[in-house]
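Dissemination and training. As part of the outreach component of the grant, students in the summer workshop were shown how a complex can be specified as a set of sequence lines and then modelled as a single object. The example used during the hands-on session is reproduced here so that future cohorts can follow it. Participants entered these lines:
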Amino acid sequence: MHMTVVTASRHPLHPLLSRITGDEKHALSAHSTLDVLWVLYDRVLRITPETANEPDRDRFLLSKGHGPAAYYAVLAAKGFIPEDWLDDLAGWDSRLGHHPDRVLIPGVEIGTGSLGHGLGVAVGTALGLRAQGFLDSRTFVLLGDAELDEGSNHEAIAYAAAIQLPLTAIVIDNQSSTHGWPGGWDGAPTWPGIEGAGGGEGDHLRAGLSVGIPARFPGWSVSVVNGRDHDEIERALRVTGRPHLVVAAVETK
Amino acid sequence: MRETFIDTTTDLLSDDPRTALVLADISASSFRTAQQRHPDRVFNVGIREQLMAGVGGGLALTGLRPILHSYAPFLVDRAYEQIKLDFAHQDVGAVLVSIGASYDAAEEGYTHQSPGDVALLDTLEGWTVHVPGHRDEVPGLLRAAARHDDRVYIRLSVQENKGPYPDGGSLRVLKRGGPLVVAVGPMLDPVLEATRDLDVTVAYTNTPRPFDTDGLRALAGGEVVLVEPYLAGTSARLVGEALNGMPHRALYLGVGRTEIRRYGSWRDHAREHGLDAAGLRRSINAFLGAND
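and obtained this result:
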């Protein structure tokens, strides 16, 4: 089975990530959001540097804000920010902090870092777009599985379900929530390994899957995908017209 | 004031397609007609104040002008970090309209009271604060706030003065005499009664933020009394900065920090905090060294 992954060698993001981290090699698990972000900006989002301020653009809100190297690399690869910004992360003269600031970085929709803010803001964003008649404009928000610990998320999850608001929430699941999200959902898929059926990586992904996360999103439709498989990710992100959860499972931290 | 707010907001929603309203159950039934008329711009998120603030931030990011409304302790105290991060940090604004003030909900107890709301907003950048002293001051303040994108807090109360002063945005002198006494919002009538036969100047404002520091410098002599309907001393820093370099003594009257574990009415709490006319008179006389 062939699978498109950023982490495959010679992907254009690699040199960009190296400029941020200073490392030649990247631990895959350090960039849990990398493949989802790439699919969003490469295949799904209707937004370019030229349309970054258009009122009817699609919105992507990085709620978790942590570990934004992958986000910055994708923004540079897609031309939102100059590549040389990547050479200074969080220095005095840098616009790129350890958490992104929308005021400092073109293309960044919200400044985050404190967990549990993005989903509520995303609900307001989706409502605002709809109120202005931008019915084709989509709103995406990305969270981490540990971020779901914050109770504010559950206010947004319940309300979005109650009004069946078109909105896509992506939860990157690398099993980093301290108490986990056990049980409650039996739709867990299984995947062949990245190197083919029976490969160790596939077992690893299965082992790392929090099947309890969808149970925390009652009233939402759900896709649980391999967070490294670009075609699976894309299919899940193309579900529209309702509150939709995409759990993207990646290696455990 | 609450009814005036509801009527004006209902009109605004019809007049200006940029206006949106976010509620967290409080006052939802009063806005039912507005919600039916404008289902795309009137939202009741349920008892979810963190979400109310987040939704406000999101609406503002798309270019709408959100009005958020609840009891002050739920709107401000509970959702403080959302107010901090989902508005100013995103470089957007909103209009926050509270009811309940410091102790309007005397019978409900301390959970429904927010003497610290203005002090909390003072930790943040760029909030205009209106404390109307009369219901007829509300429509003008609200309509002006809906026209721009800045951050505005409007603090409504059941306590009000006998008459409105729609021009109360800067210090408005109501009585000329000796030392300056500044009354914020509903504190005006008790201040006027307390100082009826005292040789003082009384000035009124319904907009303590930004504080009219120029007006204060022009009016202040060596002694200044500030009377606020929220935590005592909330404006002390601003008064101190305004009078920097001018030798002065200052008295800051307002709500005390000690929780009053009694119910009753707002009048009982005003008396307990020394904010009724008799209490104000005692404090002001003691400060000015006059005999009562």
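The first helix of chain B runs from residue 2 to 15. Students were then asked to discuss how this feature might be tested experimentally.
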